[in-house]
Design brief:
The complex is a heterotrimer of chains A (194), B (212) and C (209). Chain B has 212 residues and is mainly alpha-helical. Chain B contains nine helices and no strands. Chain B has one domain. Chain B is globular. Chain C is mainly α and 209 residues long. Chain C has one domain. In chain C, 83% of the residues lie in helices and 0% in strands. About 4% of the residues of chain C have low confidence. Classes of the chains: A alpha/beta (194), B mainly alpha (212), C mainly alpha (209). Chains in contact: A-B, A-C, B-C. The interface between B and C is medium-sized, with 37 and 33 residues.
């Protein structure tokens, strides 16, 4: 699914990623670990195609429609409701049976009650759950998650655990996290950034 | 067909966001009206009508800049632009949706400003109004692109007018000419040419400017 | 080559025996043409960057535009001198070329502001390239606009530009043009080599970090 060799990423003079290799097969579950500022977010951005590597080779066998990305930021419009946000992205991603899929995801992530409220009224946990729904809306084959557990409370984290458990194996996942222990059972490969 | 559907979805999104946030359009309206009043005091007694038309265009350009500066702000809150860029839809649709929405706001502001201008200063005929509309298209097309480019860097508020003003000069010539010249059609033609050329250029370049 | 350059630059003025205004004209027009050429080259390199993804073109485009802007500034200065010598005013709005260069000068100064505000990388290269393309399209559109604007400001009769040139004047003009082009080329290469060296040096340093 993903093959990368000697990836390097610079922003101006700052070198954020250096000499990163990884190979994730289809169905694999890779976990990216490292302290703050080690480049986890940058690596995921490069894999998603949002940033081009300064050097190195990268091969990702998924086009934009097959890729789901959970960023550090929620990637949703504050002034729109959950339904409106998902509807927009549902259209852009050509999601079949859009309304049903949106309803199902909102329910699964516990947002059904707040579906017609603006995102600006949501708690951080709710916003994160909406961001997750957005990332999974189009049932992507390759899923990139940047610190998905951040901002989630106990219930939200359990929800995510179940979700990841269901996805592992049938989808390819790359997850950047502070807490690799939590995902130890599902992990097939670990990439540790210095 | 899906391209059109994408553009419609994106434009509706922008209109909806503005309807809820309500920060850009009122600002543009107030700005353009205040500017017109300032011009009354800035123009010395006995200045001809022609000067007023010139100042109208200054007001329009700066009001447009105000709208453009705010155009991409919703996309930068929560980093949504990345979400749009990652979608399989054509990136140029993002530009087109944004341009159409900004155009709508500019025209809405002018629906109030132009009658005010006629009331305070001088009449506007059909050619003049056509000039306004054509120039609106030009400045929103080019401005959307420039705003997206400027947003990626620092000092974006200062940078946007610097990037747009030189490009706006032909539009001002066209607009003022359409208003005051007896051969207004020539100026409308200039504006139409500008719109055709620069809209296509902006539409095609957006993809390159929004990805890293 | 430097000797030939100096010779060319000196010979050209010595050939002139007309007044200051004519003399300046021989330098002013080639400088203007060279500026146009540089902007065109910058746009061409920009197109190569966007079309072919040739990242080396970024530096080439930048240097070309830098040269173009310098020559553009010189155009404005020599043009102003010419205006003073010919008409007694330091600036003439009725001079299409001069006004066009003013607009372009503003535009390309904004190019540098854009470059300064963006961090180095593919995004800056591409945004600069797009802006360079806009510049080259702006040239004819602006020219048209300025022509039309004349009708608004001073209704003048459109006259053909440039004086008629006799044989020897033409020869002088060509020499001057060749000299200026040579100068531009030399400056372009010098700056490009310098910038490439900087860039290579930095890459080397980074490789050892």
């Amino acid at each position: 699914m993903i093959r990368a060799r000697n990836l390097e990423k610079r922003y101006g003079r700052r070198r954020v990623l250096a000499g990163v290799d990884l190979a994730v097969p289809a169905g694999g579950f890779a976990v990216v670990t490292g302290p703050n500022g080690s480049g986890k977010t940058t690596l995921l951005r490069v894999l998603a195609g949002l940033a081009a590597p300064t050097r190195g080779e990268l091969e990702v066998n998924a086009d934009r429609g097959e890729l789901g990305y959970l960023a550090h930021e929620p990637l949703v419009y504050r002034e729109l409701t959950a339904v409106e946000n998902l509807d927009l992205f549902g259209r852009l991603y050509r999601v079949p049976e859009r309304r049903e899929r949106i309803g199902m995801l909102l329910e699964r992530f516990g947002l059904w009650g707040a579906r017609n409220e603006r995102v600006s009224t949501y708690s951080r946990g709710m916003t994160q759950r909406l961001a997750l729904s957005r990332a999974l809306l189009h049932d992507p084959a390759l899923i990139l998650l940047d610190e998905p557990y951040s901002a989630l409370d106990e219930a939200g984290a359990d929800l995510l655990d179940r979700e990841l458990d269901a996805l592992a194996g049938s989808r390819t996942l790359v997850v950047a996290t502070h807490d690799p222990q939590r995902l130890a059972a599902l992990t097939t490969a670990t990439i540790a950034l210095a | 067909m899906t391209y059109v559907a994408d553009v419609v979805a994106l434009t509706r999104k922008d209109l909806r966001v503005e309807l809820r946030a309500r920060d850009t359009l009122p600002a543009m309206l107030l700005f353009v009206l205040s500017t017109l009043v300032v011009f009354h005091f800035a123009l010395p007694e006995g200045t001809g009508d022609d000067a007023a038309y010139g100042l109208l265009w200054v007001a329009i350009v700066f009001t447009a800049l105000l709208g453009l500066a705010r155009a991409w702000v919703p996309e930068h809150e929560h980093g949504v632009l990345d979400g749009l860029v990652l979608a399989p839809s054509d990136r140029s649709a993002i530009w087109l949706g944004k341009t159409l929405a900004t155009l709508a706001f500019l025209v809405a502001a002018q629906v109030v400003a132009l009658p005010a201008f006629v009331l305070f200063f001088a009449p506007l005929d059909l050619t003049a109004l056509a000039g306004v509309l054509l120039a609106d298209i030009g400045i929103c097309s080019v401005g959307s692109l420039m705003a997206a480019m400027a947003a990626a860097g620092r000092s974006r508020e200062v940078l946007l007018p610097l990037l747009v003003l030189p490009l706006a000069i032909p539009l001002i010539v066209g607009g003022v000419g359409a208003a005051i010249s007896p051969e207004g059609a020539r100026y409308l033609l200039l504006l139409a040419l500008y719109d055709a050329v620069f809209s296509v250029l902006s539409w095609a370049s957006f993809e390159y400017v929004v990805t890293e | 080559m430097g000797l030939a350059l100096v010779l060319a630059l000196i010979v050209a003025p010595e050939d002139l025996d007309q007044g200051v205004s004519q003399r300046i004209f021989y330098i002013h027009v080639p400088i203007a043409l060279t500026a146009y050429f540089c902007f065109g080259l910058g746009a061409w390199k920009a197109l190569r960057l966007l079309w072919r993804g040739d990242s080396r073109s970024d530096l080439e485009s930048y240097v070309a535009i830098h040269q173009g802007t310098i020559f553009g500034a010189l155009t404005l200065i020599t043009g102003s001198i010419w205006a003073k010598a010919s008409w007694g005013h330091w600036w003439l709005w009725s001079e299409d070329q001069l006004v066009l260069f003013l607009v372009l000068f503003l535009f390309y100064c904004a190019y540098f502001m854009l470059r300064f505000s963006l961090e180095e990388g593919p995004r800056r290269a591409r945004s600069s390239a797009v802006f360079a393309l806009f510049g080259v399209v702006l040239i004819p559109v602006s020219f048209l606009a300025i022509r039309l604007a004349e009708g608004l400001i001073h209704p003048t009769v459109f006259t053909r530009e440039g004086p008629q040139m006799s044989g020897s004047m033409f020869a002088t003009f060509c020499i001057a043009w060749a000299a200026v082009t040579l100068l531009a080329y030399v400056l372009y290469r010098v700056e490009l080599v310098g910038k490439r060296l900087d860039s290579d040096l930095r890459e080397l340093r980074e490789a050892f970090e």
